[in-house]
């Protein structure tokens, strides 16, 4: 049965609606330009998977309360700040099909808006003495920055080993979902051991999430009928490519690295690399790893009593690896 994100979210719809109100309120400013930009940011909201993890984790670990709403708001503010800054760093003009902040208002304003969102997130926590939540999320922001820098360092020579790759995605992607789950548990008054367990659950889920994203680059798109190849064009090393480079002979590996380094803007060359990856066994290998991390996350949930909330979290983890975009 195909999983639908709206059906999974249904049990916490009222909490998500209340969170939306608090999130919007948290960004209000007396500066008219800031208000215009933050209203634009709110329009770009996606599937709301991060707040879903916060609320389901809180429900699983004791119950949703006012602290849970602040936890979700804190995470969303800090995450949004990192996205605004990322678009500046990457010189990206689009996010979720809409113009990025830097594309519409230029880099200087985008950086300042990111700083404003960061400060609002910090104040949401500090004003309410939510220091444990702040500690969890601040650690995630630090790890995300380290992951990005590690990826940049390694991408120069395209020499990322699988072990380093998993460290990068653990820091860049998984740590944010981990902090959602840990903050949800913390907001519900869970013990330190349970908070750490929920962090590990989120981390395993986040790694599976990133591996699914890796696969999209090599699978045919329903819209254009061919693989995206975006990661190759951006010279990003993902697991299917890392696996292929590991198993192929030296001369072929040298050729692929040359294409990625020097011809990543050539559609035919990119298509050639995609075809080679598909033939190398890199796709099934990545799928296997993705399913292993998914199972690790599901196994952690088995430590909790059976309930509708646990089932919702299980379905959310399954959705992560079954989604088509």
Question: How would you describe what is shown here?
Answer:
The radius of gyration is 20 Å and the shape is globular. It starts with a helix and ends with a helix. 75% of the residues lie in helices and 1% in strands. It has a two-stranded antiparallel sheet. It is built from 15 helices and 2 strands. The protein has one domain: Farnesyl Diphosphate Synthase (Orthogonal Bundle), CATH 1.10.600.10. It has helices spanning 5-9, 13-26, 32-43, 49-60, 66-89, 101-126, 131-155, 162-187, 192-216, 230-233, 239-247, 250-262, 267-280, 282-301, 308-322; strands at 94-95, 98-99. With 325 residues, the protein is mostly helical.
Number of strands: 2
Structural class: mainly alpha
Number of contiguous helices: 15
Outline: globular
Largest sheet: 2 strands, antiparallel
Roughly how much helix do the residues carry, as a percent range?
A: over 70%
Specify the CATH architecture.
Orthogonal Bundle
Spell the H/E element sequence. HHHHHEEHHHHHHHHHH
Which regions are unreliable across 5 or more consecutive residues at pLDDT < 50? Answer: 221-226
- Can you tell me the number of structural domains? 1
Topology-level CATH name: Farnesyl Diphosphate Synthase
Rg (CA only): 20 Å
Offer a quick outline of the entry.
The protein is mainly alpha-helical.
Write the layout of secondary structure elements.
Blueprint: H1 5-9, H2 13-26, H3 32-43, H4 49-60, H5 66-89, E1 94-95, E2 98-99, H6 101-126, H7 131-155, H8 162-187, H9 192-216, H10 230-233, H11 239-247, H12 250-262, H13 267-280, H14 282-301, H15 308-322
Antiparallel strand pairs: 1-2
Helix pairs in contact: 2-5, 4-5, 4-8, 4-15, 5-6, 5-7, 5-8, 7-8, 8-9, 9-14, 9-15, 11-13, 11-14, 14-15
